[in-house]
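Forum: Protein Structure Q&A
Topic: Joint prediction for protein chains with partners

I've read a bunch of threads here and the consensus seems to be that you should model interacting components together rather than docking separate models afterwards. I'd like to see that in practice. Below is the full input, 492 residues plus whatever partners are listed. Could one of the regulars post the assembled result?
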Amino acid sequence: MDPRNGYRLVVVANRLPVHYDQSSDERWLPSPGGLVSALTRVLQSHEGLWLGWPGVTHPHEKPTSYEGIDLQSVDISQDEYERFYLGFSNATLWPLYHDAIRSPNFHRHWWEAYVTVNERFARAAARHAGPGATVWVHDYQLQLVPQMLRELRPDLRIGFFLHIPFPSIELFMQLPWRRRILAGLLGADLVGFQEPHAAANFSRVARRLLGVAGTDARLHQMGREVRVGAYPISIDIAQISRLVHDPAVRARSQEIRAELGSPEVVLLGVDRLDYTKGIQQRITALAELYRDGVLQAGRDVIVQIAVPSRESDPHYERERRHLEQSVSEVNGENGQVGRPVVHYLHQNMPFEELVALYLAADVMLVTPFRDGMNLVAKEYVACRADLTGRLVLSEFAGAATELRAAFLVNPHDLDGLKESITQALTTDEKSARRRMARLRRQVASRDVFQWADGFLTDLAGRSQDLDEVRDGVDDEIGPHGGPVHLVEGADA
Ligand code: G6P
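Posted by a regular:
Agreed with the consensus. Here's the joint model:
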């Protein structure tokens, strides 16, 4: 492809697939994750471009390629970092879209920066996309881009996927710029969400606030059709399967159990350190279970990985302080010299080490107050090829729509949380294996590559051929996202 003619496929996301690491000679290191693998593979096959922010406000040098795909940096200034990233994206939209767990702040000067940065992304996409190209825009930081881009380049096919929840109408109505955000999203040909009810929330609020016509699955905006659907994201199942069978990873998982003092039960939590993840509530529940004697020091051990995130935001700083205080209280009350009951790590983990931890854990605790999907839940299930392991999962994670066989819990209900953890610990092996087999069938039904293909296929309009077939079931909004292969008993 000659980039002078423009790319056929452009991915637009707030972050590039690499991040800056001052301590490494390489400087630009890959950002791990299934999403990066999936989009990288799609871009490789289309010789496409990834357009995003390199994650630092004043990069000395900019990354230009990753795994054979071209990268294009979109810069943001220190002031925009504060108003667009920390401000409107993460202190207005993030809490609002996560059930207002923390009060969202509404500031006009944050909104102005959001508009400016979205315009910059839209202009960059318009510059680099070839005639009739496909542009796939990602996540809440860039909700105005579809409309801005359409105005600049009406020839493009534009898709948008929201990785986080889309809130209920009542919450969304709080947003002073609610009409602008809706109009921004309606610039896309296809708007995808993690869950059917998020898609329905969006279509309903668009009809109510902007008066657009249409059903939950198809809206009509200024003579165009905007399709709306659920495309639940997944994981790179083959990569996890490879690691699960890697002798070094298996040995490491045994070593971890030995390092933990060879306990009978290992309970594990892996989260970005975010107030939406319910980590502190989980630690409180576990502390009470030690006090009640359900958990016993020496016999039962907890590992909590809290990946550093958005550390300059005061909500995140406070969350960390409170969490670390709770952890030290549980350890103070229940631990012994050289034997804490909670092993807490506030750091990034290589993916191999994470998989070793998943293999070492008897009970996985995924208890967010609200989460778009939560891939940790799916990764854990994908690791348990021998059908061992028990998953405690919040009803408020998108993953709960699919993973019905988990020990489902309302994380706001402390007693309920304790009960579900107790149930996970005490359920007999046969029924626990049955649950895990069901979870694995569900996770195996769609990997992240099928998710990306499914979205892009629908965006390409092939789904329109299905319209006649679907006549009369127009309100079907998902889940979509690729062919479903059920692999019973096979390694997920
Ligand atoms: C969530 C969001 C992503 C975001 C990630 C990390 O998963 O959906 O868009 O990139 O968190 O957050 P950060 O603020 O570090 O990009």
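The chain has 18 helices and 18 strands.
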